[in-house]
Amino acid sequence: MTGSIDNLLHETRRFAPSEEFQANAVAQAELYDRASEDRPAFWGEQARELLHWHTPFTKTLNWSNPPFAQWFEDGELNVAYNCLDRHVEAGNGDRIALNWEGEPGDSVTFTYAELTAEVKKAANVLLSLGVGRGDRVAIYLPMIPEAVISMLAVARIGAVHSVVFGGFSAESLRARIDDASARLVITADGGWRKGKVSALKPAVDASLTIGGDENPSTVEHVLVVKRGKNDIDWVEGRDLWWHDQIAAADTEHEAQPFPAETPLFILYTSGTTGKPKGILHTSGGYLTQAAFTHKNVFDLHPETDVYWSTADVGWITGHTYVVYGPLANGATQVIYEGTPDSPHGGRWWEIVQKYGVTILYAAPTAIRTFMKLGRQIPDQFDLSSLRLLGSVGEPINPEAWVWYRDVIGHGTTPIVDTWWQTETGAMMISALPGVTTLKPGSAQVPLPGIHIEVLDEQGTPVGKNSGGLLVVAEPWPAMLRGIWGDPDRYVETYWSTFPGKYFAGDGARLDRDGDVWLLGRVDDVMNVSGHRLSTAEIESSLVSHPRVAEAAVVGANDETTGQAVVAFVIVRAETADDDGEADVTVVDATTLGVTALDATTLDALSAELRAHVATQIGAIARPKQVFIVAELPKTRSGKIMRRLLRDVAEGREIGDTTTLADAQVMTVISGTVG
Ligand code: WTA
Known about the structure:
alpha/beta; 22 helices
């Protein structure tokens, strides 16, 4: 890591904003001064300026019980009203809110007035199903307008949504439903992905029957949007068609004010243990920072811009920069259902051309994939409308950054590399495009109102030109308010490494100007295509397979996806007992030798294990490779040395093995893999 960051720091290209961009930029340099004078007061100003408060707040930050923050606690607002009704009341009802593009090429447009009307009906549907303030609703939908409508309808009545990415399995969905005790699931028959309908409803059906009658779920109803038109099973009394309910719903619904700290959503994310964490966000502070960052980092001119974030609503980016930020700001946006390569490799660029997209927010993994396909594809489309590009989810390497700017941004658009997390709720480190001189590969500077530090292991801030651990040193409005149902884990995970400071789990380095370069996770969390996956969660899934005795998972560097999941497993051999029945016994590693299994068996087993993880957690967690090994490298205290496994997975020479209990083991492993 250090080697590669040193190379990066030799990056000398600099891109200052053009005079024209600077002159018209929404955010000017004085924002930094205003914020540093009085941080909570600055956020208070933003909250008043950007949002409508039914009851104005008189307090900004309450940090009397750290790490449990309250922002704008005596204020009241309605999040959905802020995203919808107020724009209509301000005379912007005819402005397009959503340009939705289906993967097969069908499309639908919603103005702010139309979207408001749909959300009012959906809110009435929820109320009629008995969902009320504080109740949890699981949303398991493709990227269709109903995903946005559902989220806003839940917010509108003061309930709490838990969006579960459609790529997660029935088991993962059930774990999330159970953890939050969701009363309702909103899903679809299926959605379009990669040229065909991918069913969703069967996973909901399967998830709700896990554990049989002994293990009933908390779900009372399943609302089903018709999208894929695929055949589905139906449970009478439980399942309801979305369109029937909407058609029968009252059209009027007046948004009620709720206190600023009203829970808005739970979003599960992988941590360092097997159990995903339900990250809890609340209303007023979250919406303030979502709107502030969306406006200033993307230089949003809502009357003229067409904004497109390619993120799925199943991730935090889809919450903050598809739903809440853009709609609070009255932006016009594009949302797209499908994959970038369906039906052809130029699909994204065709969409940019069709809608005249001006601001594009995407992940480095996608950029690198397009780079590999070659510029002849985007060159076939008119991308001249683009004036600002954004990046999120993982470090963007300078080569991809420059390609993004040259090929997609016709050599002129600023690129904002935005660092943040599910937990931070909104962007924390990013250039301001009209102010900052850009450095490819660096996320650069904390946003106004955000206090970032890079610390050494003792908690002392490192100086310029050194690396360490990234922390947020002061509370911020969109910060997580906790882990659902587990306050101790919240304190332990984020606030115990450096008392009083939020530890993000990322390594970072300050360059000689003090700009921040992100170095990736320092814990056992992987980042695959910008999605967080936990090594422990995949290991526990592998070990649940009857043939697996032990498993170790590492994130290996991957040119396209950033990291790739690589698993090393020790298998149990199948032997015949006296009774002749096949049986499973753990075979002593020294006698098993991997050679005991022939190559075909190994391939078949490794394919089976990859499929097993995909079924248990979801396709995104499927290991790229599974190596069957005789032993795993461990320290004398029994800790698996992932560093050595990473060396093997990345095809490097194996590093220092002096702390290994058995130095032989690495020869065996690398022999097998090589
Ligand atoms: C990584 C996604 C470098 C980081 C919004 C963080 C980044 C994790 C960047 C959070 C970036 C996100 N540069 N690394 N611009 N943005 N990360 O919760 O490791 O899905 O901790 O939130 O992604 O992932 P999450």
